[in-house]
Amino acid sequence: MSDLPNCPACGSEFTYDDGIQFVCPECGHEWSKAAGGDSAEDDKVVRDANGNVLADGDTVTVIKDLKVKGSSSVVKVGTKVKNIRLVEGDHDIDCKVDGIGPMKLKSEFVKKA
To answer: For the structural domain made of 1-36, what CATH number should be given?
Structure first.
């Protein structure tokens, strides 16, 4: 019936072409045409400010003073953050900073320790 690929997330056959990507109306999953049937997010590589590949459980160091939104606190340069977790989105590092608590960081503001 249709030559469009099934959704890699839920297997739905009701996918549609949305310009440069395919979209699944049932689960909302989007993937690029270049990826074909494979999910492009599974192969995403997160790199630090120096270009080193980051992985879950790594220790990173903050390379710039970062203001904490909604607070007067600041994460200072040189702060070590242990046991990071990589997540999807703009802020791709989920971690717990000593003295501040849980927060999300952008990988461009850290370097691998």
So the answer is: 2.20.25.10
Helix (H) or strand (E) holding 96: strand 93-97
What integer pLDDT is reported at residue 36 of this predicted model?
Answer: 54
pTM over 0.70: no
Report the alpha-carbon distance of residue 110 to residue 64 in Å, rounded: 8
Instruction: Show the tokens assigned to 111.
Output: 């370097």
pLDDT band at 42 (very low <50, low <70, confident <90, very high): low
Assign 35 a pLDDT band (cuts: 50, 70, 90): low
- Side chain identity at 30, as an amino acid letter? E
Tell which CATH classification among 3.40.1160.10, 2.40.10.10, 2.30.30.40, 2.60.120.280 matches the domain 59-112.
2.30.30.40
For 13-82, where are the E strands, in sequence order?
16-17, 21-23, 30-32, 60-62, 66-67, 74-75, 80-81
